[in-house]
Specification:
Radius of gyration of chain A: 28 Å
Low-confidence stretches of chain B: 52-58, 65-90, 96-121, 144-153, 160-179, 184-231, 237-241, 252-282, 304-317, 326-348, 356-384, 391-424, ...
Helix content of chain B: 40-55%
Shape of chain A: extended
Largest sheet of chain B: 6 strands, parallel
Strand content of chain A: under 5%
Number of helices of chain B: 40
Distance between the termini of chain A: 21 Å
Low-confidence stretches of chain A: none
Strand content of chain B: under 5%
Mean pLDDT of chain B: 63
Structural class of chain B: mainly alpha
Strand order of the largest sheet of chain B: 5-4-3-6-7-8
Helix content of chain A: over 70%
Number of helices of chain A: 7
Oligomer: heterodimer
Largest interface: A-B, 54 and 63 residues
Distance between the termini of chain B: 6 Å
Structural class of chain A: mainly alpha
Chain lengths: ~220, ~850
């Protein structure tokens, strides 16, 4: 019974979402609000539950030093709450203390991100490019990759507009590279668009398959 | 076709569009139409009042509705045409000065105020004070005439009649309520109206002369209740609070001027006694002092003057030009027929005022003691407002000259009800005089202001002398007093056609740039492009404008801007393209077609009919590697499953991740679901329940801090035993976090950390570079990847899988057909298919 209710509710909400085909309407916006509100509410609940568990764990620690270690993140988090007050108010004027938390977040985040980018992105990408370009068929692929990267970057070359009026045309070879870069861009964006369509179609087909499963007994299958 | 604002070429045909430009009022740069701020100096090009819809009047428009300057107008016609009708507004500063009476907080400085006050007035006005004194002496000779000022109610403003009705009507209370607020604030009026007997009121009305009612406008008597102020008190206050010009006028009144009392002052005394002294105490100081003046006059009159005298000199203290504009003066001004008017020489009047005086010499003399039957002969013809001419046309009948004021007699005796209703209305131009408290005025302007500040009516502004306008900051360059005017034909002929492009600044003669005065480029010419003189700003002219008068430059700029704009004031305005009614229908049809096609394929097509003959395994090369990677998972080994899939992609991710979880279940792995999305672990656990995961399963929880949270989790002791991480993601950024942090953790451990990936089809192009690296042991993407994984594991695809695979492929063909049709339609119907 629970599954049937879920399917029915899901089908109704799906139809409401599809009502956007007729234009923006209240039902569609209601469905969006339901989605966003549910996600935000759930996230808030998860965060509160996380903090509660953190506090409970800290209070259950027999070692006071460990308990203090648990309290440090909570204190930093509380300092961040001062950012929510208006600067004109007293709590807003002392919100500068929250910069301590922000500084810690920014510093630690930057360190983690830089280290991860170097070890997880930069070095593996360079290594992979070298591996591809070293072999026979991969050499062609590597050259295409290198060419696509260069001409795509050239396409976004900025030009300054002369004050006198007419813009001096670029050399023919630069314009040719621009065109090649534009072709690469079109293919890249087309690929991304096609992938998005594929994901959307997959979701739609899955929804329709559920409806088909519901209708199958009705048609004797 | 209508193009959007700012377009230089037509979006359909590609031809150049005519465009106008907006000149920055600050730097003179020409900006595109549609720019709110200048591209050069970021100054605001369009004021907020111009952005408002035309039907929403701004406060400035409400105050100067008739004088607002429209877009392209020539100052060929002044606002006097419309301004002849008195309009609401506030008094300008220069007029406020005339009516300002010093407050009584500095009695000791009376003389100082007198001197300084006089010095603060324009010279022409100061001179008029002396002239007025001479006129008063001349008028003194006319004071012995038994002439009363007779006016009809129609000749007076309604507000003035309403005040009297408040005294006479049986329903005096209601009448008082209709008095304007500023007048109702004078509580003495109400108290007196409530206290006075009807009989005595009637008598009082008969005694009220023009000077009693109109004296306020001349700075003399304000209201009858002011008469109850003792003369001594009034005299003291007068020294301090009466403005200088009024003090001068009062001196003449005290010594020589005979107060007008047609019937006698006995009735007035009767009213004054009943009105009580408290009422006068609540009056403004300046008004109470005026009452003191009246008391002195009454005393002098009671002592020796005869009651038959009705000579009034209300003109002292006011310049003649203003006197001629006071409502009712024109009707009250005619000289008596029996007494020859004194030779009033026009002394030192401005030229513009002399013109007026030439037409109405009797008015300029400031004599108010004139017969009503001579009014028609003495009316100024051209300079007065329309309502004044109307008053002149309906002169008071001679029968009212017997003591009853003309403006009160007939209507009160005949139809009191109708008269009350009409008289209590305040004229519009007077309603605009918003009297404010003295303390509310700008202290820097007049620290001891007693009179309210109000705008001068438009008709009065038009008659101001030029020097006064200049002093008030509203000189001749002020275009707010202009009204829309037609552009002459010969100017229209010089302007571009409606569809023609303006010449702009390129065709103008430019001044060569001067040598740089300072800096590293000092002495170099032509560093900056030259500008036409009309385009130069005070900052950019380099002193060249000094040789040309500013007025000439402004005129040139005006003409330049006028000639640059097309003849038609209309410019192409972007209109929101109204979507045709077919668009939603087309969308619905497309959706229904695809939905029905898919449903038909699911339900009615035979199971053995496969549209797609291609094996999914060939489309997902990483599936086999992923299977191989997960085959290395030992029973009971902890495997971190990172669920980084958003809700909209849940259906697709379920089809992708299900075979992976089934494989791990077969391997009896201990799955720990974690996610940087709050709802991620819940969704992952739900999927595990759907696939009936039999092995150990736990919720690792929500990882706060994004990549920091991932790093912290992987570095924690609970993850030490983990050798394998499976990332299920629909977001490229979160996928990158996991790839980077797993690589970082593996390098820190030194033993490596296996990473397997399953992503949605939409994210595959974005994460493809990572899938090609050694950091990823195996990967699948999209529904096809899930099927390829099953095939790689040797599973036989079910009917549902093959049918969904077929429908998905049909959907791709359907979308491809739609794209092709859309492309053909666009090629045939033009760009965007919009007319």
């Amino acid at each position: 019974m629970q599954g049937v209710v879920g399917v029915v509710v899901g089908a109704v909400i799906t139809l409401i979402i599809f009502s956007y085909l007729l234009g923006d309407n209240v039902l569609y916006r209601w469905a969006l609000a339901l989605l966003v509100g549910s996600a935000v509410g759930y996230a808030l609940g998860v965060a509160i539950d996380y903090v509660q568990k953190w506090i409970a764990d800290g209070m259950q620690q027999p070692d006071p030093v460990v308990s203090v270690a648990y309290a440090v993140p909570l204190l930093l988090g509380l300092l961040l709450l001062f950012k929510g007050f208006a600067p004109a108010r007293f709590l807003g004027r002392i919100s500068v203390v929250s910069n301590l938390s922000l500084g810690y977040l920014v510093g630690a985040g930057a360190a983690v991100a830089v280290a991860g980018a170097v070890l997880g992105t930069l070095i593996p990408q360079v290594r992979a490019t070298g591996t591809i370009a070293s072999v026979g068929p991969g050499l062609v692929q590597g050259l295409i990759t290198a060419l696509g990267t260069v001409v795509t970057l050239l396409y976004f070359t900025h030009r300054s507009r002369p004050v006198s009026g007419n813009v001096e045309p670029l050399p023919w070879y630069v314009r040719g590279l621009h065109m090649v870069g534009e072709v690469f861009l079109v293919f890249s964006l087309g690929t991304v668009f096609a992938s998005a369509i594929t994901s959307g179609l997959t979701a739609l087909v899955m929804r329709i398959s559920l409806v088909a499963e519901l209708l199958r007994p009705l048609i004797g299958q | 076709m209508l193009n959007q604002d700012g377009r230089r070429i037509c979006s359909r045909c590609g031809k150049a569009l005519p465009h106008t430009e907006i000149r920055c009022p600050k730097c003179g740069t020409l900006n595109r139409v549609g720019n709110v701020f200048c591209d050069h100096c970021n100054a605001r090009l369009i004021q907020p009042s111009q952005i408002l819809p035309p039907d929403v009047p701004t406060p400035a428009e409400e105050a100067h509705e008739s004088s607002s300057l429209k877009s392209i107008q020539l100052p060929s016609r002044a606002g006097s045409v419309e301004g002849s009708v008195p309009q609401a507004g506030e008094l300008p500063d220069w007029l406020l000065d005339l009516g300002i009476a010093d407050s009584g907080d500095d009695d000791a400085n009376g003389e100082t105020d007198e001197i300084s006050g006089q010095g603060s007035y324009p010279d022409w006005l100061s001179n008029l004070f002396d002239e007025d004194a001479q006129l008063v002496e001349e008028d003194e000779e006319l004071a012995d005439n038994d002439l009363s000022l007779d006016l009809e109610p129609e000749q007076l403003p309604d507000w003035l009649i309403g005040d009297d009705v408040a005294l006479t009507s049986p329903d005096a209370g209601s009448a008082v309520e209709e008095v304007p607020d500023w007048l109702a604030g004078i509580e003495g009026t109400e108290e007196m109206s409530a206290a006075v007997e009807p009989e005595s009121l009637s008598a009082e009305i008969e005694t009220m002369s023009f000077s009693d009612s109109f004296g306020w406008g001349l700075g003399e008597e304000e209201a009858p209740e002011a008469d109850v102020i003792p003369a001594e008190e009034g005299a003291e206050l007068l020294q301090a609070d009466v403005p200088d010009w009024l003090s001068k006028a009062r001196k003449f009144d005290e010594d020589e001027v005979v107060f007008d009392t047609a019937v006698g002052l006995e009735q007035e005394d009767e009213i004054s006694d009943q009105a009580s002294v408290e009422s006068s105490l609540e009056l403004p100081d300046w008004l109470a002092e005026l009452g003191g003046v009246n008391a002195e006059r009454e005393e002098s009159l009671a002592a020796g003057n005869e009651s038959a005298l009705s000579g009034v000199d209300n003109t002292v203290g006011l310049p003649d030009w203003l006197l001629s504009l006071v409502p009712g003066e024109a009707t009250a001004a005619p000289e008596p027929a029996s007494v020859p008017a004194p030779a009033s020489e026009p002394v030192a009047m401005p030229d513009w005022l002399s013109d007026i005086g030439a037409e109405s010499s009797g008015v300029s003399s400031g004599v108010f003691t004139k017969h009503a039957d001579t009014v028609e002969n003495e009316v100024p013809e051209s300079e007065g407002p329309d309502w004044l001419e109307h008053v002149v046309a309906e002169a008071a009948p001679p029968s009212l000259a017997s003591g009853v004021p003309a403006f009160l007699g007939e209507e009160i005796q005949g139809e009191p009800g109708a008269f009350e209703e009409e008289a209590t209305e305040t004229p519009e131009w007077l309603q605009g005089l918003e009297f404010t408290a003295a303390d509310a005025l700008d202290s820097s302007f007049a620290p001891d202001v007693a009179l309210g500040k109000a705008d001068m009516p438009q008709w009065l502004q038009d008659l101001r002398p030029p020097e006064v306008a200049g002093e008030s900051g509203m000189g001749g360059a002020d275009t707010s007093v202009l009204v829309p005017a037609d552009i002459p034909d010969w100017v229209q002929a010089l302007r571009p056609e409606a569809g023609e492009q303006g010449k702009g600044t390129r065709d103008r003669g430019r001044w060569a740039t001067l040598a740089e005065p300072e800096g590293p480029l000092v002495g170099l010419h032509g560093v900056l492009p030259g500008l036409a003189l009309v385009d130069m700003t005070p900052e950019s002219d380099n002193g060249r404008k000094d040789a040309i008068p500013e007025a000439v430059i402004q005129q040139a700029q005006f003409w330049q801007s006028l000639l640059e704009q097309p003849r038609s004031a209309e410019r192409p305005v972007a209109r929101k393209v109204r979507s045709s009614q077919a668009s939603p229908v087309v969308r619905v049809i497309v959706f229904l077609a695809f939905a029905l096609l898919s449903l038909f394929a699911f339900l009615l097509l035979p199971a053995d009919l496969q549209f797609v003959q291609t094996m999914p395994r060939t489309l997902a090369p990483g599936a086999a590697e992923l299977v191989t990677s997960l085959d290395r998972v030992q029973p009971g080994q902890r495997v971190i499953v990172a669920w980084e899939c958003a809700l909209p992609y849940a259906d697709e991710m379920f089809q992708i991740a299900a075979p992976v979880l089934e494989h791990l279940d077969d391997r009896q792995a201990h799955l720990v679901f974690v996610s940087t999305i709050p709802e991620g672990t819940t969704m992952g656990m739900s999927l595990a329940q759907q696939v009936r995961y039999q092995s150990e399963l736990s919720d690792g929880g929500y990882l706060l801090g994004n990549d920091n949270g991932i790093a912290a989790y992987l570095g924690a002791s609970e993850a030490d035993a983990v050798q394998h991480v499976v990332v299920l993601s629909s977001q490229s950024e979160r996928f990158r976090w996991w790839v980077e942090q797993v690589a970082l953790t593996g390098s820190q451990r030194g033993t490596g950390l296996s990473l397997s990936v399953a992503v949605t089809a939409s994210v595959k192009p974005l994460v493809a570079p990572y899938l090609q690296t050694d950091a990823v042991q195996g990967w699948i993407a999209g529904y096809t990847g899930g099927l390829a994984y099953r095939q790689s594991r040797g599973e036989v695809l079910t009917d549902f899988h093959t049918r969904a695979w077929d429908v998905l492929m049909l959907g791709h063909w359907f979308v491809a057909a739609l794209l092709l049709l859309g492309m053909l339609y666009s090629l045939i119907a033009g760009k965007k298919g919009v007319q």
